[in-house]
Amino acid sequence: MNPCHVCEKPTKNKCSNCNQVSYCSVQHQKQDWKTHKPSCHPFKIAHNEQLGRHLVATRTIKPYEIVLKEAPLVRGPAQISAPVCLGCLNGIEAEDHIECEQCGWPLCGPECKSLDEHKAECSLTKDRGQKVNVQEFGGPHPLYTCLSTVRCLLIGETSPEKASKFQELESLESTRRGSNQWKADLVSIGQFIPKFFKTQKFSEEEIMKAVGALQINGHEVPTTDPSHVAVFYTASFTENSCLPNLAKSFNKNGHCILWAPREIKKNAHLSICYSDAVWGTADRQRHLMQTKLFRCACERCVDVTELDTFYSAIKCEDRQCGGLMLPTKTDDWNGNWRCRECHKQVQKHYVERILERAGKDIQSMEKTVENGLKYLKHYEKWLPPQHFHISEIKILLVQLLAKDQKELMVIADDKLLLKLNYARELVELYEKLTPCEVRTLGTLCFELHSAIAEQTRRVALETSLSPKDRLEESLYYVEKCVNYLQYESDIFIEGHMLKQAKINRDALRMVIRI
Ligand SMILES: [Zn+2]
Ligand SMILES: [Zn+2]
Ligand SMILES: [Zn+2]
Ligand SMILES: [Zn+2]
Ligand SMILES: [Zn+2]
Ligand SMILES: [Zn+2]
Questions:
Q1: Ligand 2 center to residue 17 CA distance, Å?
Q2: Mean pLDDT score of the chain, rounded to an integer?
Q3: Coil, strand, or helix at residue 76?
Q4: Percent above pLDDT 90 for the chain
Q5: Residue 207 Cα, ligand 3 centroid: separation in angstroms?
Q6: For residue 273, which of 436, 83, 426, 147 has the smallest C-alpha distance?
Q7: pLDDT surpassing 70 at residue 464
Q8: Which residues line ion ligand 1, judged by CB < 5 Å?
Q9: DSSP three-state, residue 422
Q10: 41 CA → ligand 2 middle, Å
């Protein structure tokens, strides 16, 4: 029995959403809802030595359930950014913008002038006694490098509550101190802010701590063009995993939505991928070390086979062998690699040469079906069929082979089959390896559903076979697509795909019912 949150009468009843607060009656629950709502989540913030603060599910979380929807604590231009409007953070052009009368920073129009978020740099610039004058609009502009840090430093002027939350965030300042990135940041931000804004308001240490907190906790938010950076307070306590249990989406306003593509059991730790789960392990680890300063030891990272997908493996140097080569030590991608069949070893630079060439060839390739097929034919000599480079090209091919419904109707039978087979193979691979990469999965399911539907249409034209099973399979994948993309805003391509998927789903349901 726990005391009712309102009257303290002992009770067994708890709020069914968060499972953490007790109420003696529906009345008392209703009465308290307004105050309780902001902290009512199906998880709690827990703490231990090893992980620091982290999030633990307080009940079973159902598939597709939103676990957390959160507005940013602070947001601003990316550290390397072309001039953007300091109201809405969208890009601006030389001929098409206004200047804030108070500070001179460019804005896209009068509607962006009065936004609260601009107040930080606006007041600091006013105090400087001289307006800024931005003239170059073509590329990254050095003045913008410090702006998100300025917003963090002045967060308390608009909200003391936000300021104390910001203070709680990890900055890893002592780990960062002295690194090349830290030294570059010291010049472009730490020493730049006092000089440029002619202010003694902030100590160098205070500024560098804010820079660290931004880099460690910042998310790239693609709801503006170019993307901006934002920090989300509660979301910052989710653990990193390259096999996470939460997907991350953003709504139109740049609020983050963390949700569960699959069921999450009670007491499980909540996690997202801080890197890109579609990358191979060596690339993810390098990226995490550079940007977040830690070595990931998640389930996927400690398994060189990446759940038996051999996503990062190369084929044995001995062509006759047919085995796959992977690092000899799970935690050292820079040491020797060994064949799992014949045990032959090669040095890292042998592997590097192959992977570098394979990566560069993708970058410089004009993205056409012919080039994609040529790439696969060439690199299958060195890379297994599920390798991340091969998979990247297959994703490309699935999208390029019949880019829309019109092309789908006339594409040659063999090409259609290719699209269908690659899509099927990739859905299977990524559902295993990256179950929370919902945009990749949703897109692949959409392509697979449409390829199956088109193939069925062709078969039905030529024979009297009942296509019902095939249509049901097509429906199965379009429903999956809707599930994966359901929180995608219509400012994104995936949001448009979601709309089409819903139309196709309803049409298929009708046809199957008849
Ligand atoms: Zn009560
Ligand atoms: Zn609750
Ligand atoms: Zn604007
Ligand atoms: Zn201003
Ligand atoms: Zn990992
Ligand atoms: Zn071998």
A1: 5
A2: 95
A3: strand
A4: 88
A5: 27
A6: 436
A7: no
A8: 4, 6-7, 24, 28
A9: helix
A10: 6
